[in-house]
Amino acid sequence: MNATRQLVFSKFSLLDISLFILIISSVGTIIQIWGGSWDVTSHVLREPESFFTPSHTLLYLGISLLVISAVVGLMLIKKPEIKNNTSLPGAFKLLFIGALMTVIAGPSDFLWHNAFGFDGLLSPSHITLVTGMLINSVAVFMGLYRLQRYIEHKQKQRLIQFFLIPSLSSLWYTSIWYTFMFALPFSESDFFNFNLDSYSATIIACIVLPLINSIIFLSASKTLNNRFGSGFVIASLLIGINIFTGIIPAKDLLGQILPWYIVTNVGVFLLADIILNSHILKTYTLRYKKMIAGTLVGSIFYFLNYPMLTWTLGNLLGTDLVSINEVLPTFLNTIVPLSILTLLAGALMGFVGSLTFSRIEHWFDLKIYQNREKNVSLEENIG
What we know:
The chain is an all-alpha fold. It has helices at about 1-10, 15-45, 55-75, 80-85, 90-115, 125-145, 155-185, 200-225, 230-245, 260-275, 285-300, 300-305, 310-315, 325-335, 335-360, 380. The chain has 2 domains: about 1-195; about 200-383, no CATH class. The protein is about 75% helix and about 0% strand.
């Protein structure tokens, strides 16, 4: 085992290995959140429930990729070149913590299913799983972003930029689902009821989800150097994941307004990207562009999170949502009052999100993670 490990570490640059495992991790984060979201939709559709389902298979395939990456990451941070001369160890440690939590959640979920059968969304094993998934997503983004500082090869730089897109999309979607854990009324089972009341769930959704939209959209644009289309591409991937895991599996039950869903959300994110990353609004400073874009993307959180948020906000209005068959009619019948409520609340929190981002924007300055030996290229010295 030691001989094999030494062979791998001697054949490739340590930075190359770091890049490879972070790319694998980025793929793993997309696969795990895809499987997790699909699994919830399967629950809502009341498909036959067991631990061994296609959605669980996809979920734990993603987790397996992350576990393998985390183990290799632990090996890497023991190397003095990585440990002492880069800021990567923090990301690899987080990756290990997240992977460990998801590994613990797997058998725990299996035991919970065996003991209690159909389980709610906010079960102990599920909250452990989603917390681990969120930590994984943060770790992968952190690792890829910091790695840019130490790799000078142009093609590798472009590779990092490319895989920052799925890593940010998975971080965004995982953050949304972490909020859903508390906002959705899916946590009642035969043995336990962890559902929040409709008012508390609505307040959580109306505060946290537009904040997430605003902060991550602005962070995504900053991460990709505010190039035109950067935030839009990441948001579009997010929209695509939601379509294929939350809308299409339900077919005609939810998909009749799919063209409207695509045009509305894609259109708003494109407009926000134009405002933020193009030269059209020349008279506005970047600070005001961020405020406008953050407010705009925050305002559409209800439409972006169709169909799931219809369960939360529909309950607020007293609609009797007991099955997925009633989601689309409820969405259409309550569209006027809920649009007024969510657009106003979302715009306000999106604006707050833009102000919050301005306070943390310095986190995205790569100079913070500059190598102690400023005049030495790590890529020339690590190998």
